[in-house]
Specification:
Elements lengths: L6 H6 L7 E4 L3 E5 L7 E7 L14 H17 L7 E3 L15 E5 L9
Antiparallel strand pairs: 1-2, 2-3, 3-5, 4-5
The structure holds adenosine monophosphate.
Adenosine monophosphate binds next to loops.
Length: 115
């Protein structure tokens, strides 16, 4: 296994099946296998960044691209007006896959503060 292989690189490389709903040169989006809302999509950069706090100035354009792409995906899925973006950074914050990803969730009410 290459050093940079993650569960999500296997999805990117079509080694593991996923319900892919968006892809471009920089990122991919697919439905979460355990959805927490009617819409629950993971938006993942193709470049492996283990977590947001490990990103650097060099990834500024990539991170901006993810932020601009997330609302487009929500809109594509019929949730242009209301959605929530979540990034779990570190195991204590709930991160279980160490390949940066943005959860795009929508389609129900969300409480605040989050659990
Ligand atoms: P996190 O806990 O923030 O690292 O999020 C990881 C997410 O990946 C969880 O919401 C999982 O349900 C999801 N997940 C794990 N395996 C798969 C898979 N094979 N396909 C799609 N989503 C997955």
């Amino acid at each position: 296994m290459a050093e940079q292989d993650t569960l999500f690189t296997k999805i990117i490389n079509r080694e593991i099946a996923a319900d892919i709903i968006y892809e471009d040169d920089i990122c991919i989006a697919f439905r979460d296998i355990a959805p927490q809302a009617p819409l629950h999509v993971l938006l993942v950069p193709k470049q492996v960044i283990t977590k947001l706090s490990e990103s650097s100035q060099q990834q500024q354009a990539l991170l901006g691209h993810l932020m601009l792409t997330a609302p487009k995906i929500a809109a594509q899925e019929g949730h242009a007006k209301a959605f929530r973006l979540v990034i779990n950074n570190g195991a204590e914050a709930g991160q279980s896959v160490f390949h940066l990803h943005i959860h795009i969730i929508a389609g129900r009410d969300f409480s605040w503060p989050p659990g």
